[in-house]
Amino acid sequence: MHAHVDPNASVADGVSIAPGAVIHGGARIGTGVRIGAAAVVHEGTEIGADCVVEDGAVLGKRPRLRAGSSAAGAEIGTLVLEPEVTICCGAVVYAGARIGTKAIIGDQAQVRERATVGAGSVVGRASCVDFDAQVGARVLIQTGVYVTGGSIVEDYVFLGPGVVTTNDHTMGRHGSEERLLGPIFRRACRVGGGAVLVPGVVIGEEAFVAAGALVTRDVGDRDVVMGVPARVVRRVPDQDLIERWS
Fold it and tell me: pTM surpassing 0.90?
């Protein structure tokens, strides 16, 4: 089986395209890119130099939204992969997203429309960065994490496996004009595995949320919280601050 490259796609020198891959017209692929078997690159996708797109990945997928969705009618835009990005096997990255230099999107992960993932960040296996979420640089998102639509994740944040965020207090019982409120994760905060965060909470800079916590209110800078609901138990010591570990 041969790769299918539409003649209207722009493919630079030194690009490797494995059998079964499909490159649609209007895609732009930079020098040194490697595209795996059965990967699909949709129209309008821009792939920077030296990116790796592994087997079965889908780039530039258009969203399919239900009638009345709060995201319906919003401009989608172009998917952009900056240089040296890795998109792992089976990952789906939607049109309108932007992935920063040297970021890694793990196996079977999903990055939705208009979401951003900053330079050097990692989105772990089977995790989802939903529409309009903003993920900064050097962020570590572990396996099976859900970053809900509209969340803000600043630089150096750590989200442990299975973290769940939410953005809708009414659970679907609202009009399309009502704004959804994803959590805000301030710089270098850490959230342990299996923690659940309610809509709109703010996790302060260098804060620490213990595994399994239920966060129902804002967490202050450098606070350590744990429990259901989460409560402050101590402060993050100086020796644990990101400057000692970056």
Answer: yes
Supply 240's token pair: 């644990």
Q: For residue 121, what pLDDT is reported? A: 98
**Rounded mean pLDDT, 169-190:** 90
Is 142 in the same domain as 226? Answer: yes
Give the chain's length. 246
Here the CATH number for the domain that contains residue 183 is 2.160.10.10
User: What is the percent of the chain where pLDDT is above 90?
Assistant: 88
pLDDT per residue as tens digits for the range 117-169:
999 999 999 999 999 999 999 999 999 999 999 999 999 999 999 999 999 99
pLDDT for 68 beyond 90 = no
Nearest to 148 by CA among 64, 42, 71, 230: 71
Q: Are both 98 and 131 inside the same structural domain?
A: no
- Asked if residues 163 and 182 have their Cβ atoms less than 8 Å apart, the reply is no
What is the number of domains present in the chain?
2
Query: Hey, is 80 helix, strand or coil?
Result: strand
* Residue 126 vs residues 79, 106, 129, 187, 231: alpha-carbon distances, Å: 20, 7, 10, 24, 30
Statement to judge: residues 229 and 137 lie in one domain: yes
Nearest partner of 143 among 122, 124, 123, judged by Cα? 124
Here the tokens at position 23 are 């490159």
Q: CA 209, CA 189: separation in Å to the nearest integer?
A: 8
Contacting residues for 93 by C-beta, under 8 A, at least 6 apart: 57, 58, 59, 60, 61, 79, 81, 87, 99, 105, 110, 111
